[in-house]
Write a structure and sequence with these properties.
The chain is an alpha+beta fold and 416 residues long. Among the domains are: 86 residues, Zinc/RING finger domain, C3HC4 (zinc finger) (Herpes Virus-1), CATH 3.30.40.10; 33 residues, no CATH class; 160 residues, Four Helix Bundle (Hemerythrin (Met), subunit A), CATH 1.20.120.1750. It is 44% helix and 12% strand. The chain contains twelve helices and 16 strands. The strands form eight sheets. It has a two-stranded antiparallel ribbon with strand order 1-2. A hairpin with a 6-residue loop joins β15 and β16. The chain is elongated.
Length: 416
């Protein structure tokens, strides 16, 4: 007896024929999936629904691998690459610190890759996190009212609606910087000039290397002297001769000659000299200003060491009953003001270097020399604080600060 099939019987579907008295019988499609036989075997492979793009193939322009079109992604520029090449491209760019500026892989194409495509094709969570961190940093850097604090290991973001070149100070690490350009605060020099100056210093660093040493010869006994403090008033330990570290002039006559020490004397006939002579004069002028810029930078570092030694000496005095920490607080105030004044003085030299010759530059260099003289007097008193009268020191602090604020008011009014 013939066996019966176990397949279910599918009833016909009744479809109206257009009249009320008759119907048309149509078979319903089988629910059993369609399949195709494998040649040489009795097995069959079911067919799955595929999108039209899956049937089309295309070679990737980067890896030249022929793949189905659904494995490709393109940008608004219509340049299309396989997802593996895109992913590799993203990983390389992110490893180089690039995020929102990741561009199309096609040469000379400026189209940027959208964030959703990058995050979709990055497989590793660590890379996605790094990309989002870089993207956030790019956003902060591009926002006119936001700045990252440039302090070491500080991630504080500072906001200001006023983006003029003013001093911003982080409340966490106390780092001060210029809010407009994000570099160290540089009054009275403006942002454009300080960029030019720092670029020039970097380009000419090898030329200026020879002046970076801390040693010079005493102009009287010629013994080698090392500068171990911030003050430019030097006294030879061998012959006790007092002289200026910058110009090596006699300190006794130096008080009235600070203007000559800090200013650069142009050669009035340089326009008629040869090209080589003009180049030598240009280098001489640069080194004059660079040496003073660098010297005050080093003096700031040395005076920090002086402050550490001062703390040790004061602690010893307090332990011996010679006053309290409050009694000696004026010395720390003097050291803080000294650093503030010297910092301003350091940035007067790039300003003077780029100034045009004339009466305004003459006035600036005069005020610069006056400020420098008072700073060195203050530095001398601070470094020898044990024998300095408190009233005398506080008077010197007042004079130095007035010189500083007057110069800034006249040549950098936004600071006043």
């Amino acid at each position: 007896m013939a066996s019966t099939s176990s397949a279910p019987v599918v009833p016909p579907l009744l479809v109206p024929s257009g009249s009320s008295s008759s119907t048309v019988l149509l078979p319903v499609c089988s629910a059993i999936p369609a399949s195709v036989p494998i040649p040489g075997t009795s097995a069959k492979v079911p067919l799955q629904a595929m999108s039209p793009s899956a049937y089309r193939t295309h070679p990737c322009p980067v890896c030249v691998t022929v793949q189905s079109m659904d494995k490709f992604h393109s940008l608004s520029c219509q340049h299309s690459f396989c997802r593996d090449c895109w992913a590799m491209h993203f990983e390389i760019q992110i490893s180089q610190g690039i995020s929102t500026q990741i561009g199309c892989m096609e040469q000379r194409c400026d189209v940027r890759v959208p964030e959703d495509l990058v995050l979709n094709l990055l497989n590793r969570p660590m890379l996605r996190d790094k990309y989002q961190q870089f993207a956030f940093a790019d956003y902060v850097k591009s926002h006119p009212e936001l700045r990252f604090c440039p302090g070491p290991n500080c991630q504080i973001i500072i906001r200001s609606a006023d983006i003029s070149p003013k001093k911003a100070t982080c409340k966490v690490c106390l780092t001060s910087f210029c809010f407009r350009c994000g570099t160290d605060y540089h009054a009275p020099t403006d942002c454009q000039i300080i960029r030019k100056w720092l670029t020039k210093c970097a380009d000419d660093s090898e030329t200026a290397n020879y002046i970076s040493a801390h040693t010079k010869d005493c102009p009287k006994c010629h013994i080698c002297i090392e500068k171990n403090g911030g003050c430019n008033h030097m006294q030879c330990f061998n012959c006790k001769h007092d002289f200026c570290w910058m110009c090596l002039g006699d300190w006794k006559a130096h008080g009235s000659e600070y203007y000559e020490c800090s200013r650069y004397k142009e050669n009035p006939n340089i326009a008629h000299e040869s090209v080589h002579a003009q180049a030598r004069e240009a280098l001489k002028k640069y080194l004059h200003y660079y040496e003073r810029w660098e010297n005050h930078s080093k003096s700031l570092q040395l005076e920090e060491q002086t402050l550490d030694r001062m703390k040790t000496r004061i602690n010893e005095k307090v332990m011996k009953g010679l006053g309290t920490w409050i009694d000696w607080q004026y010395l720390f105030d003097a050291a803080a003001l000294l650093a503030k004044c010297r910092y301003t003085l350091q940035y007067t030299y790039p300003y003077a270097y780029f100034m045009e010759a004339g009466s305004r530059k003459d006035l600036f260099e005069y005020q610069q020399a006056q400020l420098e003289a008072e700073i060195e007097n203050l530095s001398w008193k601070v470094e020898r604080a044990e024998t300095t009268d408190r009233g005398d020191l506080e008077n010197q602090m007042d004079v130095a600060e007035k010189r500083r604020t007057t110069l800034l008011k006249d040549f950098f009014p936004t600071e006043a």
